[in-house]
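User: Predict the structure for this protein chain, please.
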Amino acid sequence: QVQLVESGGGLVQPGESLRLSCVTSGFILPAYAIGWFRQAPGKGREGVSCIVSSDSITHYGDSVKGRFTISRDSAKNTVYLQMNDLKPDDTAVYYCAAEKGLYSDYLDPYEYTYWGQGTQVTVSS
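Assistant: Here is the predicted structure, written as C-alpha cells:
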C-alpha cells in the first residue's frame, strides 16, 4: 500500500526557511517520481518540484527556482523540500505525490496517482 506523509510546515516570516519532509512507504522510492505541489486558497494545484528515478534528476517550477531544493534519502524513504527565502506568495498547502514510470510532464499534478494529506505553509509578517 503506497503511503506518503508530509510534515514540516508552519508559520514563518518572509525571508525565512523551512524544510518539508515526505516519508514514503509501500514502494521502492528510486523507482518512482516524487513531486511536491502546492495549492493556495482559490487557486489550482501548482507543481513546485520533483525528483525523478534513480538518476535523481530534478525539476523546479519557475516561481521557486533558486530558492527551493528537492532531495531524496532512499535509506530513510524520505524526500525533502528545502525552502529558502520564503515569500508571502509561497503560502499554500504543500503536498507530495508519487508516480511510477513518469517520463514527462513532471510538474503536472494530473500525472500523479498517489498523494499525501498535505502540510500548511504560511509566510507572513
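The longest strand covers residues 92-100.
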